[in-house]
Amino acid sequence: MPGMQESLGVDSTLSDGTELSLPESLEISADVKDFTMSSTFTVALNDLLDDLNLEEIGDTDALKNAVDELEDAALQLVDGSAALSDGVVTLSDSYGEFDEGIQTLKDGSMCCLAVQEICRQASQATPTVRSAADPAVSR
Q: For 60-83, what is each residue's pLDDT tens digit?
């Protein structure tokens, strides 16, 4: 990463005399046939290294331990991303069923409203009394 060593304020020589050099770039290459590259993501967080306490790193063993902690955290991010991806697939696969349920709910509520309106109109109607002799007699 360009400028990372300077941004972190890390000297190129550790206290035990070991030279430290953070690379300025990352290159991945391969000879392939019938290859399709899926999405790749690079994430940069300005506070990611805050929890590593770089001030306390005085030798290569401490640096290795800090890098191991960073690797563990990165693996947790990978696991979390996989779980998120699985959830998105589940949502995508189940959305049609959810949408059908919403439509059924809508249809049912419209039916209830129609029955309620029929009952309201029936309760306001003038009752008609009919006799066997004259069906047109009303009250």
A: 787 788 788 889 999 999 999 999
Query: Is the pLDDT assigned to residue 127 strictly greater than 70?
Result: no
Query: What is the three-state SS of the chain?
Result: CCCHHHHHCCCCECCCCCECCCCCCCCCCCCCCCCCCCCCCCCCCCCHHHHHCHHHCCCHHHHHHHHHHHHHHHHHHHHHHHHHHHHHHHHHHHHHHHHHHHHHHHHHHHHHHHHHHHHHHHHHCCCCCCCCCCCCCCC
Phi and psi at 118, nearest 5°, equal: -60, -45
Which pTM was predicted? 0.36
Higher pLDDT, 37 or 107: 107
How many other C-beta atoms lie within 10 A of the C-beta of residue 6? 9
